[in-house]
Amino acid sequence: MPSRTPSLRRTPRAPLQLTIGVCTPIMEDKPSHWVLMLADRDAEYATWYHVVGGPGLASPWKLDISEGRLNSWSVNNRYYVAEIPAKHRRKVKASAKKVPGRFCQGWVVDVIGDLEKDFVVPVGTQNDIAKLMEADPYYGDAPPKVEKRQYLHEYFDAKKMFDWIDKHCFTKLLSPY
């Protein structure tokens, strides 16, 4: 079995760095895009958690979880959030999935608030990060688009079903043959 070098091995007890990547806005008058980044200390790559889509792109908000460079060309600044125990890696992912999509900066603040409730980040972190937010371009607009899902009960017609049961089942049950 080939051995792995110590630098490639992930130390299970080593703390993780939770930061916010601030991406350069595509247009001058637009707010910057925020990405929640979770990485091992001194790592080159991080797990990126961010929402994409929304009213500006005429599409539903969608969570994107991917691996990206910690010092990416698109990230022009990073805010330190907290150093967290490695055992809380799954809690970060769970919070990212649980918080509904909206303007990226507000979404990041909401995720940090959820992590604060779970005692993953220190109390007061959400408040500190919220002070860094730029104006929400969608504030006051219609609520974010949510993907419409088709459910089975939307196609279910109870009257038709009971009529069919009455015609095909009860008549045969009551029949002497």
Question: What is the element layout, followed by pairings?
Answer:
Elements: E1 16-23, E2 33-40, E3 45-54, E4 59-69, E5 75-84, H1 89-98, H2 104-117, H3 125-130, H4 158-174
Helix pairs in contact: 1-2
- Globally, the shape reads globular
Mean pLDDT: 80
Helix share, percent? 25-40%
Query: Any idea what the radius of gyration is?
Result: 24 Å
Largest sheet: 5 strands, antiparallel
Distance between the termini: 73 Å
Q: How many distinct beta strands? A: 5
Secondary-structure content class: alpha+beta
Strand order of the largest sheet: 4-3-2-1-5
SS element count, helices: 4
Poorly predicted regions are: 1-9, 141-155
Our estimate of the beta-strand percent is 25-35%
Written as H for each helix and E for each strand, in order along the chain, the element string is EEEEEHHHH
Main features:
globular, 177 residues, five-stranded antiparallel β-sheet, alpha+beta, single chain
Would you give an account of this structure?
By secondary structure, the protein is an alpha+beta fold. It has a domain of about 120 residues. About 25% of the residues lie in helices and about 25% in strands. It has a five-stranded antiparallel beta sheet, covered by helices on one side. The longest helix is centred in the C-terminal third of the chain and has 17 residues. The chain is globular, with a radius of gyration of 24 Å. The N terminus is likely disordered.
